[in-house]
Design brief:
Blueprint (H helix, E strand, L loop, with lengths): L3 E4 L5 H12 L3 E6 L10 E5 L5 H5 L2 H4 L4 E4 L5 E2 L7 H29 L2 E6 L12 H21 L4 E8 L11 E2 L8 H16 L4 H13 L6 E4 L3 H10 L2 H10 L6
Parallel strand pairs: 1-2, 1-4, 2-3, 4-6, 5-8, 6-7, 7-9
């Protein structure tokens, strides 16, 4: 049976790789972009979407009612010391990373439930499981969408509709150049903050290709009973095993040290 998938943020990175793979597997693929007219990707029909604008989200309601698969990939990366984090940055981050994706899911789920089949994939981040200093807002936003998916999957699985979260680690998508960041000029955190950013950029440059994440997303879409979470990149199987077996304080220190922070 032909399925329709909507992939947000499909103009680059993980979203683009996912859209390409779904096209190759025979899906009708709808992509989103803030500038859909500028996008060219074979087999993908682009629609306008700005997750920071609730009206833009609501405008997709008619389309979302017909899709079989929703991949909530679009989002914003952000770094700032909590002490310095401006309120407007925090509000925008949650609008883009949480409120927008959750509303898209709300608009898609009734149609999926009525048809007896559907998949909603939230693209989260491994930082939700391994929190990193100076990324508290981003960590919280990714933990939030994982929480929505993990709880709501129990509401919809009896109808053949599954919600799941894919948690990438460090991925080589060029996102470092698009990350928003802020630190006060006189911040006592400036030195460690800049150290963390340098390590984050280094790890992402050497990270997993987005095509590998896309393959994991498609697996979550096509598994008969998708798991609550799929993790990919940054040695995910080993580090999650370590998280289960090692003392929490050890795992916390290891996470910070991977980003050149001595805690």
């Amino acid at each position: 049976m032909s399925r329709t998938a909507l992939v947000t943020g499909s103009s680059s990175g993980i979203g683009r790789a996912t859209a390409e793979l779904l096209v190759a597997r025979g899906y009708r693929v709808l992509g989103t972009s803030r500038d859909p007219g500028a996008q060219r990707l074979g087999g993908v029909e682009f629609l306008p979407l700005d997750l920071s604008d609730p009206a833009s989200v609501e405008a997709l309601a008619p389309v979302l009612g017909t899709v079989d698969v929703l991949v909530n990939n679009a989002g914003e990366s952000q770094s700032a010391p909590l002490e310095d984090l401006p309120g407007d940055m925090l509000r925008r981050l949650f609008e883009v990373n949480v409120f927008g994706p959750v509303r898209l899911a709300q608009l898609a789920l009734p149609g999926m439930r009525a048809r007896g089949h559907g998949r909603v994939v939230m693209v989260g981040s491994m930082v939700a499981s391994f929190p990193l200093a100076y990324r508290s807002a981003y960590v919280a936003s990714k933990a939030a969408i994982k929480g929505f998916a993990s709880a709501a999957r129990h509401e919809f699985s009896p109808f053949g509709v599954w919600l799941t979260t894919v948690e990438p680690g460090a991925i080589a998508t060029g996102i470092s150049g698009r990350r928003t960041s802020f630190v006060a000029p006189d911040s006592p955190h400036r030195r460690d903050f800049e150290t963390m950013l340098g390590a984050l950029d280094r790890n992402e440059r050497a990270g997993t290709p987005p095509e590998r994440v896309a393959a994991t997303i498609v697996k979550a879409v096509e598994d008969r009973r998708p798991r609550a979470r799929y993790a990919v990149g940054s040695g995910a199987p080993a580090v999650f095993a370590l998280r289960r077996l090692a003392p929490a304080a050890f795992v916390e220190r290891a996470t910070q040290r991977r980003h050149d922070l001595r805690r």
